[in-house]
Structure formats: structure tokens, C-alpha cells
Amino acid sequence: MATYYFKVGTGEPFTDKTNTGDDAVAKGVAVKATNAPDNTESWRMKYNFSTNSVDVKFDGDDEATAQTKKLKEIDDAVAAELAAAKQAQVDLDAADA
After folding, report:
1. pLDDT at 97
2. What pTM does this model have?
């Protein structure tokens, strides 16, 4: 297991550097986790304040597979947002008619 520091409130990764992380903890802007997984990109990690542990997005997948899944999530979110915007415009047009 590795030591990693995460932002207070959001649980997003902050740093893996001890000096910077300990300073942030002292200032109350980060928490220290000693149970972060080794060899995992920081974008995949998030601190879970309920369980006081590190959650890993796409746990069990290698980095390439995780990147592919991340891009699919983004594409799906954009498609859903576009569909909602189109429907909102249709609704506005119908209300104006």
C-alpha cells in the first residue's frame, strides 16, 4: 500500500509528496491515507470519508481498459446532455406554438 493525500470535502487526489501532503494536512485541506493502492493512476482514486478508505474507479482493470471506460462514460454523458437539450428545445417550441 502507498501513502497518498486527498482533498478534504471532495476526496479528490491531492498529492503523493510527503512534505506537501503533511503541510496540507496541518492546514486542514487534505487527509492522509496510508491504504492507497500501489501502481494506480491518481485520477482513478477517491477518498471515501464514510469508510476512511480509498476507492478505485474501474478497480481490477488495467490502465488502458480504465481509460477506455472513462472515455465511454464521458461520451455517454455528452450524448445524454445533448439529448436533454434537444428535448428542452422541442418542449420550448411546442409551448410557443
Report:
1. 76
2. 0.75
DSSP designation for 37: P
Q: Which amino acid is at 85?
A: A
Phi, psi (degrees; rounded to nearest 5) at 30 = -145, 160
Do the beta carbons of residue 56 and residue 40 sit within 8 Å? yes
Q: What angle do CA 3, 6, 12 make, to 5 degrees?
A: 130
Whether 42 and 4 have beta carbons less than 8 Å apart is answered as: yes
Pick from 11, 21, 12: nearest CA to 49: 11
CA dist 71 → 30, 68, 77, 87 (Å) = 28, 5, 10, 24
Report which of 32, 33, 37, 34 is spatially closest to residue 59, judged by C-alpha positions.
37
pLDDT at 96 over 80: yes
